[in-house]
Specification:
By secondary structure, the chain is of the alpha+beta class. The protein has a single domain, classed as RraB-like (Alpha-Beta Plaits, 2-Layer Sandwich), CATH 3.30.70.970. The strands form 2 sheets. It has a 4-stranded antiparallel beta sheet, covered by helices on one side. A two-stranded antiparallel ribbon has the order 5-6. Strand 5 and strand 6 form a beta hairpin. The termini are far apart.
Length: about 100
């Protein structure tokens, strides 16, 4: 069926856990962001092109990796242009803290 750019979201209690998880997601573009509010978790975004037919399996794989590092998996999403064409998540395109 083809591929789409897809971004997984996960939260971690500390930066070190998020970074260790990002290392296990070496085939993804990753970004780590500080908590937006006090007490919130560190956000790890992990994106890559995914075969649509294998998306459910990839969810399970990423969720298992996140949980192994003490994180909470919050699902994922494909971002679309107004034309309906999928594009990379804008939060992954920024220039801050690329880890892969």
């Amino acid at each position: 069926m083809g591929t789409i750019p897809y971004t997984h979201w996960a939260y971690f209690p500390d930066e070190a856990s998020a970074r260790r998880c990002a290392m296990d997601l070496a085939d993804f573009v990753t970004r780590i962001r500080e908590p937006a509010i006090s007490g919130a978790g560190w956000l790890l975004l992990a994106g890559r092109d995914v075969e649509v037919d294998y998306l459910p399996a990839r969810h399970g794989e990423v969720e298992a990796i996140v949980e192994r590092h003490g994180g909470t998996y919050d699902g994922g999403e494909a971002t679309y242009l107004g034309t309906g064409r999928p594009v990379a998540d804008p939060l992954l395109i920024g220039d801050d803290d690329a880890t892969a």
